[in-house]
Design a protein that fits this description.
The protein is an alpha/beta fold. About 35% of the residues lie in helices and about 15% in strands. It has seven helices and seven strands.
Length: about 260
């Protein structure tokens, strides 16, 4: 079974919805390497999973005028985190939460993998995932010449022990950007489209989380690949699912319309 799913969109769509952290599924052999009890693991999954972000993406895709493509992780980020750098570039290596997590959100031990076990997780899960989304982006570039990745996440109201920037604001919506892949026009489209889904319009850029996902073979080199991250505070997710689906669909439509007029 593949650890991810590609849900096809319209042949002319320039948008990919990326949902990396919504699943709670952990294969049995990977579970065997996690030292938590079942009760502890359930609590950790509740803390770390971006629950319902797949539902936001699916509802937005259904409502969009031009259906986007979707790339959805079907295993938990406790298996591997596909959004981390797999090497020394990843700042969360410092707290044991790089591509292969060794610590929990509370900074207790999750697993203590050997070098071989870590390499196996990267080979079985991280590399195929990275190659899969990179191939989809290349395919869409060949078909329509431009791609915008909308990275869909959520975050808790209160900061977790592992977070490196605990004094950052925790707005209703954090928009993650990249200096190369997020042009000002995309940032403005995102703010305008998503504002109606936030209770008070409390939106910040790059805090408490920054950046957005771009495949490594395009990262920092191809401006035809644009990206933005939606980090939605979890109380907003639980209280306004329908509004978030509609706002994300509005964003998709705005991007598609912009691409067709530029």
């Amino acid at each position: 079974m593949s650890s991810f799913e590609i849900i096809p969109g319209d042949a002319q769509s320039t948008v990919i919805l990326h949902v990396p952290h919504s699943s709670t599924f952990i294969p049995a052999d990977v579970r065997a390497g996690i030292v938590l009890t079942d009760e502890e693991l359930a609590a950790e999954l509740a803390a770390i999973t971006d629950a319902h972000t797949d539902i936001i993406a699916a509802g937005a895709a259904d409502q969009a005028g031009v259906r986007p493509w979707s790339f959805v992780n079907r295993t938990s980020r406790l298996v591997i985190d596909p959004e981390r750098f797999p090497d020394e570039r990843e700042e969360l290596n410092a707290v044991g939460m790089g591509a292969v997590y060794e610590k929990t959100t509370r900074q207790t031990t999750l697993r203590t993998p050997t070098t071989e076990e870590r390499a196996d997780l990267i080979e079985r899960f991280f590399n195929p995932y990275s190659e899969g989304i990179a191939a989809l982006v290349r395919e869409r570039l060949a078909a329509v010449g431009k791609v915008t990745i909308i990275d869909v996440h959520s975050f808790p109201v209160n900061h977790s022990a592992y977070e490196l920037h605990k004094t950052d604001a925790r707005p209703e919506l954090c928009i993650g950007t990249d200096i190369f892949h997020t042009p000002a026009t995309l940032l403005e489209l995102t703010r305008e489209a998503m504002r109606p889904a936030t209770p008070t319009g409390d939106i910040e850029n790059d805090q408490p989380f920054k950046g957005c996902y771009v495949p490594l073979d395009q990262y920092g080199s191809n401006a035809a690949v644009q990206a933005v991250m939606l980090e939605i505070r979890r109380d907003v997710v639980s209280s306004n699912m329908g509004g978030l689906q509609t706002a994300t669909a509005t964003l998709i439509d705005a991007i598609e319309n912009s691409d067709r007029t530029t």
